[in-house]
């Protein structure tokens, strides 16, 4: 999994008649896989397996796919096709639970490199039409359409005809570039647009004005607002607030009393469709990380031969990410999640910034010397922080100090 922490710079200002779009790719990971395996179109397919679930070619040219009914482990669904969602399968669900609901569903491994490639393709396609884009992750973006030529054109029958046409052109550009569909919501602000893009999935296009909020959005559950999590939703339900409309009608003073001044005020504003956040087009990375969750718990000593190449590969992938984004880092960190879900992180500051995989690997090993390695692991990750533009110091120039022992090849006494 690739993680990118950011701090942003505001580049647009709020105006009453903004045209903000939220574009969300439809079942993105699963849709990318269906491009590779078109024979699975229309079938329930789940993404979340490991390498052992790679399809196997048969002598007659067909493929043999892994099925959920044969899965054993504690993995979770990364995403699922819409056909699989019809069985109640969804992201974050345990694969064993999913197998009970849809035992014949196909299980495919996760391929983040391919998903990132398609992500870059769809964003580049959007930029040819509307260049003011806020990147929100691998499969979603916000777009400012206000200054796109023709976006503010109107007809007597459709005051939003111009922006509707622009949005349709963006959807077609994405399909032409990637072969994939997306859903777009266009409204006066980011909060409403994110809600709108989800209303008519898949392949949807939803345009809303503030006048549409009571009809289209107020009947929806309050939890549909991005920023209202399970705990906040439960507290709202305790107060008899279940829908966005009920939240919009709630006394702001009581919301502030119950949830605090900042969050209580935001709840009232969000339910009434008000959001002044600008589009942020440039983000400076604060850190870049790679991590992986194991299909089974691994012990640092007993599974040393498995863990060592995993960490090496993560460091190599992290170095490639730094190279692609044009950064080097001065802080190397590791993250471990044990089998009891306890998480430990450690970091060290390097003498010089680097993006060399071997140095990252070496310093990650040093970090590991400071944490307990006598318990099984569920996850391991590596991170570079204190980023600077450029390539840093070449390995032969860097004063890395004494060479550390390879990761997970520490003496048994250290692991006892």
Describe this entry's structure for a reader.
The protein has 416 residues and is an alpha+beta fold. Among the domains are: 28-111, MutS, DNA mismatch repair protein, domain I, CATH 3.40.1170; 218-280, DNA polymerase, domain 1 (Orthogonal Bundle); 282-415, Dna Ligase, domain 1. It contains 14 helices and 16 strands. The protein has helices spanning 28-36, 82-85, 95-101, 112-127, 161-178, 190-197, 213-217, 230-238, 244-249, 252-259, 261-271, 304-325, 357-368, 412-415; strands at 2-9, 20-25, 45-49, 56-57, 63-64, 66-67, 79-80, 106-109, 133-135, 140-144, 182-187, 205-207, 282-298, 327-338, 343-354, 377-389. The chain has a five-stranded antiparallel β-sheet with strand order 1-13-16-14-15. A hairpin with a 5-residue loop joins strand 4 (56-57) and strand 5. Residues 1-16, 397-407 and 409-416 have low confidence and may be disordered.
The pLDDT mean sits at: 88
Using the CA coordinates, give the radius of gyration: 24 Å
Quote the beta fraction.
15-25%
Unreliably modeled segments:
1-16, 397-407, 409-416
The strand count comes to 16
Mind telling me the CATH superfamily name of one domain? Answer: DNA polymerase, Y-family, little finger domain
What percentage of residues falls in helices of 4 or more residues? 25-40%
- CATH architecture type of one domain: 2-Layer Sandwich
Q: Give the oligomeric state.
A: single chain
Described by the principal axes of the CA atoms, the overall outline is globular
- Going across the biggest sheet, name each strand in turn: 1-13-16-14-15
Output the number of helix runs.
14
User: Which structural class do the helices and strands define?
Assistant: alpha+beta
**Level-1 CATH class name of one domain:** Alpha Beta
Q: What profile does the largest beta sheet have?
A: 5 strands, antiparallel
* CATH fold category name of one domain: Dna Ligase, domain 1
User: H/E series, N to C?
Assistant: EEHEEEEEHHEHEEHEHEHHHHHEHEEHEH
């Amino acid at each position: 999994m690739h993680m990118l922490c950011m701090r942003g710079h505001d580049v647009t200002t709020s105006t009453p008649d903004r045209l903000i779009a939220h574009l969300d790719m439809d079942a993105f990971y699963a849709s990318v896989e269906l491009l590779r395996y078109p024979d699975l179109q229309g079938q329930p397919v789940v993404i979340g397996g490991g390498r052992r679930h790679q399809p196997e070619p048969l002598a007659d040219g067909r493929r043999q796919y892994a099925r959920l009914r044969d899965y054993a482990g504690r993995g979770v669904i990364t995403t699922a096709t819409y056909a699989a969602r019809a069985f109640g399968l969804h992201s974050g669900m345990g694969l064993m639970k999913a197998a009970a609901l849809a035992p014949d569903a196909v299980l495919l491994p996760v391929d983040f490199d391919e998903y990132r490639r398609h992500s870059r393709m769809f964003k580049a396609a959007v930029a040819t039409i509307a260049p003011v884009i806020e990147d929100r992750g691998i499969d979603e973006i916000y777009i400012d359409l206000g200054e796109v030529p023709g976006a503010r054109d109107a007809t007597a029958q459709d005051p939003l005809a111009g922006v509707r046409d622009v949005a349709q052109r963006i959807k077609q550009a994405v399909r032409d570039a990637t072969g994939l569909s997306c859903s777009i919501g266009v409204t006066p602000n980011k909060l409403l647009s994110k809600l709108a893009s989800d209303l008519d999935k898949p392949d949807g296009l939803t345009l809303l004005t503030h006048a549409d909020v009571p009809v289209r959005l107020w009947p929806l559950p309050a939890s549909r607002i991005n920023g209202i999590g399970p705990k906040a939703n439960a507290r709202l339900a305790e107060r008899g607030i279940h829908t966005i409309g009920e939240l919009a009608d709630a006394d702001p003073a009581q919301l502030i009393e119950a949830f605090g001044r900042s969050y209580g005020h935001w709840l009232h504003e969000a339910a009434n469709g008000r959001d002044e956040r600008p589009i942020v087009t440039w983000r400076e990375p604060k850190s870049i990380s790679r991590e992986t969750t194991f299909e089974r718990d691994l012990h640092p000593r007993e599974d040393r031969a498995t863990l060592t190449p995993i960490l090496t590969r993560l460091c190599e992938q992290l170095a490639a990410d730094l190279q692609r984004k044009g950064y080097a880092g001065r802080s190397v960190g590791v993250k471990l999640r044990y089998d009891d879900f306890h998480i430990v992180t450690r970091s060290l500051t390097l003498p010089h910034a680097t993006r060399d995989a071997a140095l990252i690997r070496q310093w990650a090993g040093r970090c590991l010397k400071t944490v307990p390695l006598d318990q099984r692991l569920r996850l391991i990750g590596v991170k570079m922080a204190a980023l600077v533009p450029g390539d840093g110091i070449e390995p032969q120039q860097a004063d890395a100090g004494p060479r550390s022992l390879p990761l997970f090849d520490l003496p048994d006494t250290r692991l006892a």
